[in-house]
Design a protein that fits this description.
The protein is α+β, with helices and mostly antiparallel strands. It has helices at residues 2-31, 36-67, 75-100, 110-120, and strands at residues 103-108, 132-135, 138-143, 146-160, 163-172, 178-186. The longest helix has 32 residues, at 36-67. Pfam families: DUF7261 (PF23922).
Length: 198
């Protein structure tokens, strides 16, 4: 009788262990997927960085093209050229985001461009160049016998499953420098934050 009870206990234990093994294996496999928030953060950050590089390259190429094809006070022509090229670059950045599983929005920032022009374009009678003109997020200036693309202000927002990153980039065309300010907000509920260029 005792032998039968012992056999039944061993049999029951074997059944329980057999039932638990697939569950443990499934749990272990889930652990190898990685933290979804970290994965999303990486995709969001990488997409934002790639977007910045694309904008830098586009503004540099547009600056070179404008300097070779414009005369003085051709602000509308330079702005139109910059807008056309930036819209194409924005489409490319947004497409890369879709491929990575994040949503990307790129838009020119008119108010940031005006603030930047007021702060960085010298005025008064002793200025070397003409006044800057800010239009549609694009800053231009007559320098010598040509109209230069000085800078472009662009907002880039990247939204992933677990968070967002938002940055306003002022990409300088004439000198090639980039000023940016960004806000990241990661968590279960995506948060969109505004940014300012000082």
């Amino acid at each position: 009788m005792r032998r039968r009870r012992a056999q039944l206990v061993l049999l029951a234990a074997a059944v329980v262990v057999t039932a638990l093994v697939p569950m443990l294996l499934a749990y272990a496999q889930l652990g190898h997927v990685g933290d979804p928030a970290t994965t999303s953060d990486d995709r969001v950050g990488a997409t934002l960085a790639d977007g910045k590089r694309t904008l830098e390259r586009t503004v540099a190429e547009t600056t070179h093209a404008a300097s070779n094809m414009t005369g003085p006070d051709q602000h509308r022509q330079v702005t139109a050229l910059a807008v056309t090229r930036l819209d194409s670059a924005a489409d490319a950045v947004e497409s890369v985001g879709t491929d990575r599983g994040v949503s990307v929005d790129v838009a020119r920032n008119e108010s940031a461009a005006r603030r930047w022009a007021r702060a960085h374009c010298p005025g008064g009678p002793d200025r070397v160049f003409d006044a800057c003109v800010a239009s549609d997020g694009v800053i231009t200036q007559t320098r010598a016998n040509t109209t230069a693309l000085v800078a472009v202000a662009v907002d880039v927002s990247v939204r992933g499953p677990d968070g967002t990153a938002h940055a306003t980039f002022v990409v300088r065309g004439v000198r090639g420098a980039v000023a940016d300010h960004r806000t990241r907000a990661y968590g279960r509920s995506p948060v969109t934050s505004g940014t300012k260029i000082e």
